[in-house]
Design a protein that fits this description.
It contains eleven helices and nine strands. By secondary structure, the chain is of the alpha/beta class. Strands 1-2-4-5-6-7-8-9 form an eight-stranded mixed β-barrel, surrounded by four helices. The radius of gyration is 20 Å and the shape is globular. The longest helix has 30 residues. The structure holds ligand C2E and magnesium ion (3 copies). One magnesium ion binds next to loops. Keywords: Signal. It comes from Bacterioplanoides pacificum. This is ABC transporter substrate binding protein.
Length: 284
């Protein structure tokens, strides 16, 4: 009985593996022409200051609609794009697109605060991100203080000299650097004092089961205390309820992002969001 079960398991594994490989190949092939076919777009999600209620930033989130595959969520295609070396050109497209959008909003006095762009590891390890960011800021005539870059902990922990140097240069330019999905990666925290990071983003997995899960409350409280004692900003992602926002604020977390405030929005939806709840314009 154990033997036949073993065979079933084996069959199950090969079937799902085959399906997975086919899906990966499809995604990779379709992604190759996603930019030239105009299949990519950005949605934007507001980031809120909890005490004032003001929008302090908007995070650019990549969306892909392919004719054959339909809508493919970033969690499904970004890792594949990274492995296939496609995240370099896609990442550059995202950065430039976000920059053009920020320019347009500045021209029209739409107070978006900072525009936050997610950066994939290979964008720093395999190319000159500093050059790309400088070119974009110059081309879009944007102050560096308009831009925030979200990098992941796993990437940070690779801690290569050339990447660290790039982070310092970006910081000196005035670009804000945030660690995304904080708490899900490595446990060594020594990089927090070595690197020019100014913000931690608490991963949404620690927010989701609040307030029922007391372990999650303990973890997020610890991250908040850590950020506050190191003089870093801290933002919680995935905030869906008022209760969660209240707990976070009580613990000393000033910023939040999540469905409670807004889902990621298209450009025109975001502009409606701003006109429905006018913000005090942030002078620059
Ligand atoms: P992330 O950077 O941590 O982005 C937050 C994710 O949480 C987004 O998923 C957002 O839609 C989702 N989210 C926001 N508020 C809530 C909430 O209240 N509840 C729940 N359940 N989810 C919420 P999305 O847009 O599917 O993106 C997933 C991930 O894909 C991102 O996680 C990021 O790691 C990656 N990604 C997205 N766009 C880019 C990009 O342009 N470049 C790179 N390198 N990665 C990107
Ligand atoms: Mg992010
Ligand atoms: Mg995140
Ligand atoms: Mg995440």
């Amino acid at each position: 009985r154990a033997k036949s079960q073993g065979r079933n398991n084996y069959q199950f594994y090969t079937e799902t593996m085959t399906r997975d490989i086919i899906e990966r190949v499809n995604i990779e092939n379709e992604l190759r022409h996603a930019i030239s076919s105009n299949e990519l777009s950005l949605h934007y999600q507001p980031q809120i200051d909890l005490t004032s209620g003001q929008v302090i930033g908007v995070e650019a989130l990549l969306r892909w609609h392919n004719e054959k595959l339909g809508r493919v969520p970033p969690d499904r295609f970004i890792a594949i794009a990274e492995d296939a070396g496609l995240m370099l050109t896609i990442g550059e497209w995202v950065l430039n697109q976000a920059g053009k959008q920020a320019r347009d909003w500045l021209d029209r006095d739409i107070p978006f605060g900072r525009i936050a762009v997610n950066i994939a590891g290979p964008q720093i390890t395999k190319m000159n991100l500093v050059e790309q960011v400088s070119a974009m800021l110059h081309h879009c005539r944007l102050p560096a203080t308009c831009l925030s870059l979200e990098v992941t902990e796993t990437f940070i922990m690779q801690n290569r000299d050339s990447s660290v140097k790039q982070l310092y240069l970006l910081h000196e330019m005035g670009v804000e650097l945030a660690i995304d999905d904080f708490g899900t990666g490595y446990s060594s925290l020594s990089y927090l004092k070595k690197l020019p990071i100014s913000k931690l983003k608490i991963d949404k997995s620690f927010i989701r089961d609040m307030p029922e899960d007391s372990d999650d409350i303990a973890i997020s409280n610890t991250i908040i205390a850590l950020a506050n004692s190191l003089g870093l900003d801290v933002i919680a992602e995935g905030v869906e309820t008022r209760e969660q926002a209240q707990l976070l604020l009580q613990a000393g977390c000033q910023q939040a992002q999540g469905f409670l405030y807004s889902r990621p929005l298209t450009v025109s939806q975001l502009e409606q969001y701003f006109s429905a709840s006018p913000q005090q314009s942030i002078a620059r």
